[in-house]
Amino acid sequence: MVGAGVLGLPYAMAQLGWGPGVAILVLSWIITLYTLWQMVEMHEMVPGKRFDRYHELGQYAFGEKLGLYIVVPQQLVVEVAVCIVYMVTGGKSLKKFHDTVCSSCKDIKLTYFIMIFASVHFVLSHLPNFNSISGVSLAAAVMSLSYSTIAWGASVHKGVQPDVQYSYTAETTSGKVFNFFSALGDVAFAFAGHNVVLEIQATIPSTPEKPSKGPMWRGVIVAYIVVALCYFPVALIGYWMYGNSVEDNILISLEKPAWLIAMANMFVVIHVIGSYQIYAIPVFDMIETVLVKKLNFKPTRLLRFVVRNVYVGLTMFVGITFPFFGGLLAFFGGFAFAPTTYFLPCIMWLAIYKPRKFGLSWWTNWFCIIAGLCLMILSPIGGLRQIILSAKTYEFYS
Questions:
Q1: Tens digits of residue pLDDT in 331-377
Q2: Is the distance from CB of 239 to CB of 21 less than 8 angstroms?
Q3: Which of 12, 68, 268, 384 supports an S-S bond with 93, CB 3.0-4.6 Å?
């Protein structure tokens, strides 16, 4: 659950301000926990059948064809978006590690660090399945906890900066509004673990006496307690210490102690290596299935080799072209993550269970749907503006 999006939360707080920032963080935590509960419940709502994929649930709720058209494109966008953002995150963290460990060394371009990060995936992408990356996944989980703790711990150690300011960074009203929109996307990106939740639940044994939703829900509760322990301290302490001068990745703002910051950045690299693979494997599966079943390619090792290398190469290329961590988080957070995390489970719940009109469940779901829709429409506007502004001063492939 805890992703690299946590590193952008102090920056999001700087654009939202204390009051709205805390409210949106708490609200996102509650809404996403609620929609996650819905997905856990819906996994086995038909006796004797389990919905092991998001699109299978979509097909049951909306019909065979419409369900596919609604869910699959959104899932695909989410998975590809995460891979692109993690390319940039991995490259930036490697660069920060290099610059911290060897401050007197010759400056190396970010482009090369993204290429170094991608080179790992040209190898890892050829592992056969989820089980073969379980070790990498475990390491990634430990790393995310570690760098979150370092992020707020080092901020506390550094203390409140002498010239700290909590006012909005933008001078104009339109600037403040657009930054507010993009910050909503940063928050949405951080709370996105719903895309693979049914696939995870599918690995838990289930009987009528002991359905899988029991242990799954206990796991979700633990995960969300950990999320709260990671997200809230990083977001609030990071903003409290740096105010509106915080970077879009909190670890870039931290300079000392050098060994600890270097270690934290290395933890981020290890984490996003694992996370990249978790989001890339379903995409490989989808592309290879279409090529073999629809376009009649032979399922050979060569096909697999070409597909996976081309995909890693494309995400690397986009990452090198637009290495704007904050802008990408905001754009994809709203555009891709808001639907699958904030309101699609609620729409499915209304379609399948048909709760009593104007009852508590009905109102709750409609509130989540409207909040999610606002998020999906507004935050990509702010994110796109941020990317355009960053691109103005950035020399491509420099």
A1: 777 777 788 888 889 999 999 888 888 889 999 999 999 988 988 88
A2: yes
A3: 268
CA-CA-CA-CA dihedral for 273, 279, 282, 285, to nearest 10? -40
Residues 161/245, Cβ–Cβ less than 8 Å: yes
The answer to whether the peptide bond before residue 257 is cis (omega within 30 degrees of 0) is: yes
Do 251 and 242 form a contact (C-beta atoms < 8 A)? no
Question: How many residues belong to the chain?
Answer: 398
The pair of three-digit structure tokens given for residue 197, joined into one six-digit string: 């939740």
Distance (Å, whole) CA 7 – CA 253: 11
Cα angle 157, 159, 160 (rounded to 5 degrees) comes to 160
The gap from C-alpha 214 to its chain's centroid, in whole angstroms, comes to 26
Ramachandran category for residue 286: left, alpha or beta (phi over 0 → left; psi -120 to 50 → alpha): alpha
**Ordered alpha helix ranges (H), 103-255:** 110-124, 134-158, 173-190, 197-201, 213-242, 250-253
67's tokens: 């369900």
CB 95 within 8 A of CB 115: no
Is 248 a residue whose pLDDT tops 80?
no
Q: How far is CA 20 from CA 26, 181, 228, 240, 283, in A?
A: 10, 12, 17, 15, 36
